[in-house]
């Protein structure tokens, strides 16, 4: 019971900023018996102290850094990063190469926002470029961030767990919070991109009123000869394929952020103290 009272007293002292009066890093009980304890002997106290300072479980921080520095994690991040860049560059290049407006042709698209095939593809390509930049930022920050501890946390002894390098630890936390912020932005942009893909299903499935006289036809390959130009058909075909490929890619990346490794929910918790 004496030891538990000592722990409670020290926590109260830290809460009220009276650490010098009630306890230090090496605290001794006034009571009789062997109730002496130090931070070295109680590594869990270290995690509690850091949580009080606004750093949620340091083990989450170290796990995230290890995941980002892992060769498999880096390879997966590099794959998604390069895929975003390739998709963005291809879509923008293809759209500009088949822009029907350059020849003064109206493809006759009909949708609530009056978005043409060209404009939809252009917005999609720019959005993928933004996703690429955020993914690249996460990849670079992950490669440049080192763990706040040397060696494996699970196999290290008690003293090394309870006595970290404070300066290095703060630097790691700062970098990890930047990664968490970039991850949050990627999730926001990815969610908006999914909405744009959902709207694209309307754009590329709606009947075409080419001459705006009420006569419509379905924009399918069977009616390809009815399109206003070859460029209109090419843009429609690319947009329809991107509905499948792009949607699968975005959903797969979001699923990776949420379900693999540390997980998106735990990563974003690191931002709470910074914005509180």
If you had to describe this structure to a student in words, what would you say it looks like?
The chain is mainly alpha-helical. The protein has a two-stranded antiparallel ribbon. The chain has 11 helices and 2 strands. It is elongated and about 80 Å long. Helix 8 runs antiparallel to helix 9. The chain folds into 2 domains: 1-41; 56-275. 65% of the residues lie in helices and 1% in strands.
Give the total of domains.
2
Low-confidence spans? 18-55, 150-165
| Annotation, overall tally of beta strands | 2
Mean pLDDT, to the nearest integer, reads 75
Beta-strand residue percentage: under 5%
Give the overall shape. elongated
**In this structure, how is the largest beta sheet organized?**
2 strands, antiparallel
Report helical residue fraction: 55-70%
Number of helices: 11
The whole-angstrom Rg is 28 Å
Write the element-wise H/E pattern from the N-terminal end onward: HHEEHHHHHHHHH
- C-alpha end-to-end distance: 36 Å
**Largest sheet strand order:** 1-2
